[in-house]
Write a structure and sequence with these properties.
A hairpin with a 5-residue loop joins strand 1 and strand 2. The chain has 19 helices and 12 strands. The chain starts with 14 loop residues before the first helix and ends with a helix. The protein is elongated and about 105 Å long. 44% of the residues lie in helices and 12% in strands. Helix 11 packs antiparallel against helix 12 and helix 16 runs antiparallel to helix 17. By secondary structure, the protein is α/β, with parallel strands linked by helices. The protein has a 6-stranded mixed sheet, sandwiched between helices. A 6-stranded mixed sheet has the order 9-8-7-12-10-11.
């Protein structure tokens, strides 16, 4: 027995009514017609009195936001809902016709998808309404390009293109066009429109399991919106290839249901989410679809991407193309209050859709901003900074396995690898000592360069935190004020990262290093002894995190019982602090150089 899919509902039998009540609760400009599953404009009486053509559509539920989502000014007057994937009954359709068409000289246009049940039930209601003296016409939308022949009893299915007919007809009705004029234009639109769908997974009805099966590496081309079988099942491939397959099938002249497409054509493109597709995927498909068409020399004058007509929770997309002329563009552009109609964002005074060029990014160029450059330092000290930076990176690379091991308790075991990526990127740009690729003679510029490198190479929170630390340190280094720079970097990490001293993070080691520096300066401790003190206190602080309760970072989500080793970020800090200090100890620095570093 197939497993029943999970749904957030009350009861299977009440899910459609509950859905409709939710829609009108969110949109008080809509009402439910008492005793029927009909969503109708609250101002329907005004429309009748004005003699405007009223538009009614509908079908089985499960295609939300279609069709109730398109009830509003400039689109539908009413939408009739059936049970999930079942045509609405004639009585409810007739009730909607009466509510909009009684004593309305403008008449009613029924917009019906080409499914047998819909045509029969809307047809029954239409004929009954005519006997009551109501002017009614019906347009059947069947734009599916999946079928390979037109010699089918049911013919082409009505899919997402139906929404475009709602929009065009609605704009015309709002502009007081006659029923026959609306019928003529919408028939023209249907004849010049095509849709093709593709699914990655089946849909599942409330109270039931999946409607069909697809293997994990399969996709199916040409499904209907009720899960009807497609025309071809194939292996999953890239978004670019999927779009090509869909358009190639839609325009294949060897099929009886193809849509002609040639260079110079002007089209409207709809990229539709069939229900279970993430917006990330949908926008990728949109990008590939417009690229395909523009490379073909087709002008995409109007483009819509979103959730228009679904098949419950089916993972998949459909692509709709409509050949455009100036009249159809005008009607697509007309305003509508229907809550589900998605209008693209256009720039100021923009009337035509074009694929925009990329806006050049504004880059911070140190070499062009001379007033922002820091002071250069003595070449001797620059060589020491080069050596310290090189040693720091080498030691962090060597510590990869150790830091990864420590990170397995609270993270995903990549702390060492993350630091290694940053260190390798710095070494790559640092280059040889004879001609450094980084500005080691200007600490301010160097720090900003390093901030950019670690941000791009390390990634994640570690890269961001180190970039913050370095960026915030830069202003003080214009005056070569190292101690203030260190303090400002720590403050920025704490301010934006949310951690404080004692929270079991890398900040514990940084706080200890800074505190030791301040103490050494205050007590006038000899330079070598100061360096030893800084190393000792930083390592002790990193080791002490082993006994702390994590209050910030990823470790804060881990049980205290599982944290039996020091924080890997704090240990990493103790490693590079020691690396720098060891290099400084090897050099006999003058008093002025010592002051520049410690004070």
């Amino acid at each position: 027995m197939a497993e029943i899919s999970k749904k957030i509902i009350n009861e299977v039998d009440s899910c459609v009514d509950d859905c409709l009540e939710g829609i009108v609760a969110c949109n008080p400009g809509l009402k439910l017609l008492e005793g029927h599953r009909v969503v109708i404009r609250a101002d329907v009486g005004e429309l009748r009195a004005a003699g405007k053509v009223c538009l009614i559509s509908g079908g089985g539920s499960g295609h939300e936001p279609a069709h109730a989502g398109y009830v509003g000014k400039g689109m539908l007057t009413a939408a009739v809902a059936g049970a999930v994937f079942s045509s609405p009954p004639p009585d409810s359709i007739l009730a909607a016709i009466r509510a909009a068409g009684k004593d309305n000289p403008g008449g009613i246009l029924l917009i019906v998808k080409n499914y047998t049940g819909d045509k029969l039930n809307f047809g029954i209601a239409s004929e009954r309404a005519k006997t009551e003296g109501i002017l009614v016409e019906m347009i059947v939308v069947g734009e599916d390009c999946a079928l390979t022949t037109q010699d089918k009893t049911a013919g082409r299915r009505g899919l997402c293109g139906t929404v475009l007919i709602h929009k065009i007809a609605g704009a015309m009705a709002e502009a007081n066009k006659s029923l026959m004029e609306i019928l003529r234009v919408t028939r023209f639109a249907v004849a010049n429109m095509g849709t093709i769908g593709l699914s990655l997974s089946p849909c599942s009805l409330p109270g039931f399991g999946p409607t069909f099966n697809l293997a994990a590496d399969e996709m199916e081309l040409g499904l209907g919106i009720h899960g009807e079988a497609g025309v071809r099942r194939m292996k999953l491939t890239s978004a670019k290839e999927i779009v090509r397959i869909m358009f190639d099938h839609m325009t294949d002249v060897n099929t009886g249901t193809h849509l002609e497409l040639k260079t110079g054509d002007q089209v409207c493109l709809v990229v539709n989410n069939l229900g279970g597709t993430s917006m990330l995927e949908l926008n990728i498909v949109a990008k590939e679809a417009v690229n395909y068409l523009e490379n073909l020399g087709v002008q995409v004058d109007r483009m819509y991407c979103g959730v228009f007509m679904t098949s419950l929770d089916m993972s998949g997309v459909s692509l709709t193309l409509l050949h455009l002329d100036s009249l159809l563009k005008k009607y697509l552009d007309a305003t509508s209050s229907a809550f589900a109609w998605m209008k693209p964002m256009l720039g100021n005074d923009m009337m035509e859709r074009i694929t925009p060029d990329k806006l050049p990014a504004i880059e911070y160029n140190i070499n062009q901003l001379e007033d922002m450059e820091g002071d250069t330092i003595d070449p001797e000290l620059a060589k020491i900074i080069y050596e310290a930076l090189h040693r720091m990176c080498t030691d962090l690379i060597d510590a990869e396995s150790r830091l990864n091991y420590l990170d397995t308790e609270a993270g995903d075991g990549d702390c060492g690898t993350t630091h290694k990526r940053g260190a390798e990127s710095i070494l790559e740009q640092l280059g040889p000592a004879e001609s450094p690729g980084l500005p080691v003679s200007c600490p301010h510029d160097l720090i900003l360069k390093l901030a950019k490198i670690v941000e791009q190479s390390m990634g994640g929170s570690s890269g961001a935190l180190y970039s913050l630390f370095l960026s915030a340190s830069a202003p003080a280094l214009r005056m070569n004020d190292w101690l203030t720079a260190f303090q400002q970097g720590i403050a920025a990490m704490s301010r934006y990262g949310g951690a404080e001293q004692g929270d079991r993070t890398m900040l514990d080691a940084l706080f200890a290093a800074h505190s030791s520096m301040v103490k050494c300066v205050a007590t006038c401790l000899p330079f070598d002894q100061s360096l030893e003190s800084i190393i000792k206190e930083t390592e002790a602080a990193a080791q002490a995190t082993e006994k702390m309760r994590a209050q910030a970072g990823r470790a804060s989500y881990v049980s205290v019982d599982r944290l039996n080793h020091p924080d890997p970020g704090a240990v990493a800090v103790s490693i590079w602090i020691k690396s720098i200090a060891e290099v400084l100890k090897q050099h006999k620095l003058s008093a002025s150089f010592q002051a520049a570093i410690v004070e």
